[in-house]
Amino acid sequence: MNRSRPNEADVQGWLHKRNTQCNFDTVLQVISLRSQPEIAKLPVKVEMTQDEFDRFGFDYQPIEGEVSHCWKFEFEVQHASVFENEISSLGSLYNDCMGVPMIQCPGQINGLPAWLDTTEELKNIYFEVI
Fold first, then answer.
1. Residue 63 needs a FRET pair 20 to 30 A away by CA distance; which of 2, 37, 98, 106 works?
2. How many domains does the chain have?
């Protein structure tokens, strides 16, 4: 994505795209602390189902009549064991994510913090091994 400010009228749309891309880049950088990820599936914005809400912190609940979205992408690493700690197979990855600043974008779930949070009540990022 070109991060130079456009000469077009839709500056807010451009800002939203730029900030979303910056957040994705930040997550990739955190993953890259321990591994060299290869993107298997590019990020897509998906409508959240109850299953997705269940994977995030329990403070996030669907609001009747409102549609919520999250971003999903798949990546591969050569040695998944680099994310292991004494607690879980992805424990070090979750520890690395905790507190990393993120840019808030319009349309996010209300109350979403401006950083990655991996606590049970505010978890706003999750990983799963496929």
1. 98
2. 1
